[in-house]
């Protein structure tokens, strides 16, 4: 997990997980619409997952 991805996950979570697939992007986007904190948490969890 690079520093740029972490900062991007904090500022705009869906953009940080764009390279992880369409499903991850949609999930994080919906969670970000519900609230900023759930989107950030989901983005950091997805970025921290090695697979």
Model description:
The protein is mainly α and 51 residues long. It has one domain. Helix content is 76%, strand content 0%. The protein contains four helices and no strands. The protein has helices at residues 3-11, 13-16, 22-34, 36-48. Helix 1 runs antiparallel to helix 4. The longest helix is centred in the middle third of the chain and has 13 residues, at 22-34.
In short:
The chain has 51 residues and is an all-alpha fold.
Low-confidence runs (pLDDT<50, min 5 residues)? none
User: What is the succession of H and E elements?
Assistant: HHHH
Estimate what percentage of residues fall within beta strands: under 5%
Structural shape: globular
Mean pLDDT: 92
Question: Biggest sheet, in brief?
Answer: none
Please report the number of helical segments: 4
How much helix, percentage-wise, in residues?
over 70%
The count of β-strands is 0
Determine Rg (CA atoms, Å).
9 Å
How many discrete structural domains? 1
Key phrases:
51 residues; mainly alpha; 4 helices; 76% helix
Topology, pairings included?
Layout: H1 3-11, H2 13-16, H3 22-34, H4 36-48
Helix pairs in contact: 1-4, 3-4
């Amino acid at each position: 997990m690079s520093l740029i991805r972490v900062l991007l996950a904090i500022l705009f979570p869906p953009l940080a997980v764009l390279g992880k697939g369409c499903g991850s992007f949609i999930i994080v986007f919906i969670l970000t619409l519900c609230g900023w904190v759930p989107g950030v948490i989901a983005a950091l969890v997805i970025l921290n997952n090695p697979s």
